Amino acid sequence: MARGSTRRNADAPGHSEISAADDADGLITSPAGRSAPTGARHHRRPDPGLSAAPTAQVPDHHREVTAGQTLLKHHRHLKHRAAYPARPPAIARPTPAHKVLTRQFFRRIGAGDLSAVDELVSDDYVEHEQVPGLAPGKAGVRQLFEMFHAASDHAGVAVDDMIAEGDKVFVMARMTGTQRCEFMGIPPAGNTINVSVCDYFRVENGALTEHWGIMDAAGMMRQLTAH
Fold first, then answer.
1. 22 & 124 share domain
2. Inter-residue contact 145 to 129 (CB < 8 Å)
């Protein structure tokens, strides 16, 4: 059919005339709105009614509300930080070696192995509970337990409880034994003692470096002098 000629659409009412030029893309639209290809090409013309919707515009008052909410949240955040300051850095958790070291010290000392003082107590050991008449520091620790074992039969030191926090170790222990010779100026009477002791050590570089302690001295004197 020559360009510019017309043909009838048999499906349309009244057999309306359709120009071949109007059907140059090979599409004939039926009254029901359906398109059917008439040529080799099968693409469709864009439908003006399906064009992309315009981007929605945010009203100015909505932007103001959103900005106000953001400022309010920021203000609450600053107020919270002022009321609750940053937490101090957490104390380092003690390694199990701290408790193992301290328990080994008490076990060996209780058994009379005084080499534990040489191996487990640091050379710069600080004693905050200095016993009168004994040397300061590490040497005084060895002297104290030499006197205790020399004056007592069945001498021992038993750990009842142990708590570690950071580089500190707290120990509740008991010193037991039967006096056989003079001890701290008290003559022997064959009495048995069971004395509570609280020791507080600081551990550094795998050694006991500092000590605070409380002993039931009054209870020990009462037991040693009992008749």
1. no
2. no
* E strands present in the chain: 6-8, 17-19, 27-29, 35-37, 121-127, 152-165, 168-179, 192-204, 207-215
Q: Are residues 26 and 115 in the same domain?
A: no
Same domain, residue pair 113 and 187: yes
Q: What is the span of the domain harbouring residue 19?
A: 1-38
Q: What is the pLDDT of residues 138-183, one digit of tens each?
A: 999 999 999 999 999 999 999 999 999 999 999 999 999 999 988 8
Q: How many structural domains does the chain have?
A: 2
Alpha-carbon span 105 to 124, nearest angstrom: 17
Q: Is 62 left (phi over 0), alpha (psi -120 to 50) or beta?
A: alpha
Do both 220 and 118 map to the same domain? yes
Residue 125 Ramachandran class (φ > 0 left, ψ -120 to 50 alpha, else beta): beta
d(CA 199, CA 212): 6
CB 117 within 8 A of CB 138: yes
Residue 72 lies in a domain: no
pTM: 0.58
Distance CA 169, CA 88 (A): 22
